[in-house]
């Protein structure tokens, strides 16, 4: 793989202005996201660390690799942390030109000039803060803006929920502007246009340019890398701590001779478009566990993690990737929904139906995909051959009616 230039990142946190975000594990979650973008060189958190509301979080922030900068407030009511942080950010930008990306976590509007100055210095800037006048002012000066209040907006109570539920995910029933199929189409086209692997973070930025609300969590993926890995047409590789994506194999325009009127020809075409479920027996096993899962999982990512634990216990050959693909397939089938659990929490559920109906629904989805592909390329559909791909007891005559043979 061609050697790629790795982003070097500096992170500055005005801790006194984001205590609620820190309380809800915001620091760890931000670090997980930034580690996918490049190498984090500087990590500093500013505040009066002797204050009880900050002191209780010192250990966790320190374990995340942060240098804790203690800022004395000689005058009551005055916050000197933001001043110290501003000085350090600008000083770092001037003295360390190899730092290409600055991440500023704050809720203070006084930082607006800092964001602008960094952009003038040709730095990538990621702002992290709550929905406010600040966020609206600086968004145009940022490469990206992450909202801290997304961490807690789905929680019914900040004090009584177990730690495992405190994850900054959007509501499971949030609707994305981009469909999963459209997002896949854009990514494939973007990768096809490049002669070298592309930084995963750049691909996500590209998708956000098409739909500002793009978030892989809308489709049930915990991270953007999980989303990329679920697509068989994409190959993900690592250079240091940074993920790069490229096409797994060249995608050539389909010719009439490419799609033979046979089960194998249809199968190859469906797999190319990630529209054929892998391993029918394993898919049925995963579905049985999914409908039986009664744990309160407020977001798809946690549901998938719990589902993998159940499936892996039954069959150690079932991998996380297989479970992720199956869950994504359930979403395409329209089986994933949310319902209210005890305590008013949203709980992700997979619709229960008889195995017979589930397999029939899956077969009809596959046939519908073949018909859709037939609108843009030459495919000679034969019910006899399609029948060989089906999982249910659907008859050949029923298939003929569906395809108009």
Topology at a glance:
Blueprint: E1 7-14, H1 19-23, H2 26-34, E2 38-47, H3 52-55, H4 58-63, E3 67-70, H5 81-95, E4 101-105, H6 112-120, E5 124-129, H7 133-138, E6 144-147, H8 180-192, E7 198-199, H9 200-210, H10 224-229, E8 234-239, E9 242-247, H11 263-272, H12 280-292, H13 300-314, H14 320-332, E10 336-340, E11 346-350, H15 355-373, H16 383-387, H17 396-403
Parallel strand pairs: 1-2, 1-4, 2-3, 4-5, 5-6
Antiparallel strand pairs: 7-9, 8-9, 10-11
Helix pairs in contact: 12-13, 13-14
Pfam families: NYN, OST-HTH
Organism: Methylomonas fluvii
Protein name: NYN domain-containing protein
Can you describe this structure?
This is NYN domain-containing protein. InterPro entries: LOTUS-like, NYN, OST-HTH/LOTUS_dom. Pfam families: NYN, OST-HTH. This protein has about 400 residues and is an alpha/beta fold. Helices cover about 40% and strands about 15% of the residues. The protein contains 17 helices and eleven strands. It has helices spanning about 20-25, 25-35, 50-55, 60-65, 80-95, 110-120, 135-140, 180-190, 200-210, 225-230, 265-270, 280-290, 300-315, 320-330, 355-375, 385, 395-405, and strands spanning about 5-15, 40-45, 65-70, 100-105, 125-130, 145, 200, 235-240, 240-245, 335-340, 345-350. The strands form three sheets. A six-stranded parallel β-sheet has the order 3-2-1-4-5-6. A three-stranded antiparallel β-sheet has the order 7-9-8. Helix 12 (about 280-290) crosses helix 13 and helix 13 packs across helix 14. The longest helix has 19 residues, at about 355-375.
